[in-house]
Specification:
The complex is a heterodimer of chains A (40) and B (505).
Chain A (H helix, E strand, L loop, with lengths): L3 H36 L1
Chain B lengths: L3 H25 L5 H6 L6 H12 L2 H14 L3 H26 L6 H9 L1 H34 L3 H50 L1 H13 L16 H19 L2 H9 L3 H16 L1 H16 L3 E2 L2 E2 L5 H10 L1 H40 L5 H25 L6 H12 L2 H9 L5 H21 L6 H22 L8 H4 L14
Parallel strand pairs in B: 1-2
Helix pairs in contact in B: 1-8, 3-8, 3-12, 3-15, 4-5, 4-13, 5-10, 5-12, 5-13, 6-7, 7-8, 7-15, 7-16, 8-13, 8-15, 8-16, 9-13, 10-17, 10-20, 11-15, 13-14, 14-15, 15-16, 17-19, 17-20, 18-19, 18-20, 19-20
The chains are: A mainly alpha (40), B mainly alpha (505).
């Protein structure tokens, strides 16, 4: 059985993982949308 | 329960938003031909593709099913769901990179199969491609219908049919490009809900309390969710669940033309790699783990289970969301997640089907002298027809358990995988062996499922046989064959419509 510290690190660690993934898509996606809107 | 009027408002609001966006997209990027329609002109940047791939792979079950996995298997539930469903992308990504290099003017996977194995084998794969679209899209309609019916008391038929109709309208109008732009909006909605909800659940319940609750689940035989493996990351039952998830997901990725269309639509191979790796491994993979942890584990840590606080485990995610947000907002956020997840997955399927029929069917089967305009018009009509079929099927499936359909789909769509992969990398695999492997795998998988009486074992053996027996047939059949395919033929392939293939290949 895992410890409480492990569960905490695991839950928050996966959250950070998701934040990184979402930012790596979200920021350049916003930039692309602005580019599309600004082009015409 | 939340007001039904609000549910209708959500349906109408998003219908206006998504169909309106597809109208704007089709005006801003006028479609010059088939390639623009089904492959978005092959110039979409990585971030938009990554967002689209991520949300396309977030099914209603990625949230609700993974949450249930968390209640069944504890802390190893979500991660096994995630790794199982990620494995097909480890195969798909190098496969589609190869396809882009070996056959630069290819759009659909059935075009490749036709060049590699011939027309008859291509027809078999075409049937699998259409079958997967009907099955996956219908399942999304059912999921959304249940969510709207449960939360807003909107008639199930309306909640299932209207979202399918919205997706059908925007795909028919703006093709793949419209689908991708709508996916990006839906990516932001799903991402924001997760970014806010996860820390809120952890903060509200507290890691210490969640851990203590899970400890009780693992050690107290009187606990309604008693499971000695709840705090074990290496649970073997959960691992088996993950392995079956991989088999079931294999065909859902490899034979969903939507993923090929998006890969082909990416501006370069480098962007394709970046988009698919970030979209799947970085952004998608944590979603089911989070759902398993913060919805599933949190629920059982509270001592709640089936018949003890909730009627069914499918209520896991909405229960936790109502707990942290209050009934109104929590329910709305839950419906929005399911709504967006179902629509993007359905849209991916339908855009893929549109490509299959526009590129592979009309000019080859119906009208050999068709212009690209006629091909596109046919593609739009087929999209509407498929949307209607899916909408009606979703209505007819009210109250039917989709579990058997899921297991059967795993067997059905895993069987052609080996023939397809071998065709891509091995010149020795002849068409006859490819076809034999498909039907042997299918027969063995279905036979095992029907003959083995143990309900905990028959689905597992059926799925494994459907995936691995064809691999054995393909390997042995190819080793003893004198057949040799010349892959250079693929480089020279010219489709029946104008294609602007990337210059890098």
């Amino acid at each position: 059985m895992v410890s409480e510290a492990f569960v905490g690190t695991y839950f928050w660690g996966v959250y950070v993982w998701f934040v990184v993934g979402a930012l790596l898509i979200g920021i350049p996606a916003i930039a692309e949308i602005i580019k599309v809107i600004g082009n015409k | 329960m939340v007001s039904g009027g609000l549910g209708y408002l959500i349906l109408i609001g998003f219908a206006v938003l998504f169909i309106g966006l597809s109208v704007i997209v089709s005006k801003r990027f006028p479609m010059e031909g088939v390639d623009d329609f089904v492959a978005a002109g092959r110039n979409i940047p990585y971030a938009l593709i990554a967002a689209s791939v991520m949300v396309s792979w977030v099914w209603t079950t990625t949230i609700m099913g993974a949450a249930e996995a968390g209640t069944w298997y504890g802390i190893s539930g979500g991660i096994n769901y995630s790794f199982g469903a990620c494995i097909p992308f480890f195969i798909f990504i190098p496969l589609v990179v190869q396809l882009r290099r070996k056959m630069p003017k290819c759009t659909t996977f059935t075009e490749f199969v036709q060049e590699r194995y011939g027309k008859k084998v291509s027809a078999i794969f075409f049937a699998f491609g259409v079958g997967i679209v009907l099955y996956v899209f219908t399942e999304q309609g059912v999921g959304i219908g249940i969510a709207f019916n449960t939360i807003f008391e909107i008639p199930y038929q309306v909640g299932a049919f209207i979202p399918v109709a919205i997706v059908t309208a925007y795909i028919a109008k703006a093709g793949l490009r419209g689908s991708i732009f709508n996916d990006v909006i839906q990516f932001f909605i799903i991402a924001i809900i997760f970014l806010v909800t996860v820390p809120l659940v952890i903060k509200t319940l507290g890691i210490g309390n969640i851990y203590d609750g899970l400890m009780d689940v693992a050690t107290n035989p009187d606990n309604v969710n008693y499971n000695p493996q709840a705090l074990n990351m290496g649970s073997t039952v959960a691992l088996r669940y993950g392995m079956v998830a991989a088999v079931v997901a294999m065909g859902q990725v490899l034979f969903d033309q939507g993923y090929y269309s998006k890969a082909i639509a990416t501006i370069s191979t480098k962007s394709l790699l970046r988009a698919y790796l970030i979209g799947t491994l970085l952004a998608w993979a944590p979603v089911p783990i989070l759902s398993g942890n913060v919805f599933g584990c949190s629920l059982i840590s509270l001592g709640i289970g089936e018949g003890a606080g909730i009627e069914s485990l499918s209520q896991t995610a909405p229960y936790i969301m109502s707990l942290v947000y209050g009934t109104g907002i929590g329910s709305i956020f839950f419906v929005l997640m399911v709504f967006m997840a179902g629509m993007t997955t359905g849209g991916n399927c339908l855009a893929g089907a549109q490509a299959l029929f526009t590129v592979d069917f009309y000019k080859k089967v119906v009208n050999k002298n068709a212009t690209e305009k006629q091909q596109m018009a046919f593609g739009r009509k087929v999209t509407v027809a498929l949307g209607l079929i899916v909408g009606v099927a979703a209505i007819l499936l009210e109250g039917v358990s989709l579990l058997k359909l899921d297991i059967f789909s795993g067997i059905l769509f895993a069987a052609p995988t080996s023939a397809f992969l071998a065709g891509m990398i091995w010149k020795r695999t002849p068409p006859s062996v490819a076809v034999a492997s498909i039907f042997i795998g299918l027969g063995a998988g279905i036979a095992a499922w029907l003959i083995i009486s143990d309900p905990d074992l028959n689905w597992f053996v059926g799925n494994m046989l459907a995936l691995f027996l064809p691999a054995v047939v393909v390997i042995l059949g190819s080793i003893f064959s004198k057949y040799e395919f010349d892959f250079k033929k693929l480089l020279e392939y010219e489709p029946s419509h104008a294609v602007k293939a990337s210059k890098e290949v």
